[in-house]
Amino acid sequence: MAKIVANKLSFVYIDTGAMYRACTFIARKHGLDYGDESGILKAIDEDGIVLEPGENGQKVLVAGEDVSLEIRTPEITANVSQVSALPGVRSKMVDLQRKLAGSTNVIMDGRDIGTTVLPEAEVKIFLVASARSRAERRLLDWQEKGIEAKQTLEEIEADIAKRDYLDSHREVSPLKKAADAIEIDSTNLMIDQVVAAILAEIAKKTNTSK
């Protein structure tokens, strides 16, 4: 949804979740424990994480290699919450996210944008959906990208619920709705309906319409 909105507004799309997935990918690549904060930080500095515009909105490069698909595998998905909860990793990524946002108009997609990364953002959308519907969407996304699903729909749903719990209870930048965020429940909406709702809210706040 965020990618589509960014394209319609000719804004830069930034998927912050992909950045934490890249950190998790780096940990796996170097054979590090997902809780090894100092080791992961060193490996991030060695490899580097770069975001570039891509056909699907954003490409993620690690050590100069496009890992946009690799960071979406079930193993990375299962461990990203642990890596993203590491204070040092979170601080490093938040600094990078703020630098990216400070250079141009952006649509930033992530779980702590309105509360931690960009608390002064002009428009904040808190998008929610049931764990079941998100599991169905994730399974479809894997199928479209040719990623083998090693879990049942029920297992994916359970993992999503677990990640929501972990992210909302972590000490650093927990997942929560900003006081001034606009909540949109996408459970029973089609993509174009969600996009239209988001664009309408942006237009109200910024006098921008597409």
From TrEMBL:
Domain Cytidylate kinase, chain residue ranges per copy? 2-203
Q: Which residues cross the membrane?
A: none
**EC number assigned by the record:** 2.7.4.25
Lineage top rank: taxon: Bacteria
Q: Which family does it belong to?
A: Belongs to the cytidylate kinase family. Type 1 subfamily.
UniProt-listed NCBIfam families: cmk (TIGR00017)
Record protein name field: Cytidylate kinase
Q: Which species is the source of this protein?
A: Lactobacillus delbrueckii subsp. bulgaricus
Question: Top-down, what is the taxonomic lineage of the species of origin?
Answer: Bacteria, Bacillati, Bacillota, Bacilli, Lactobacillales
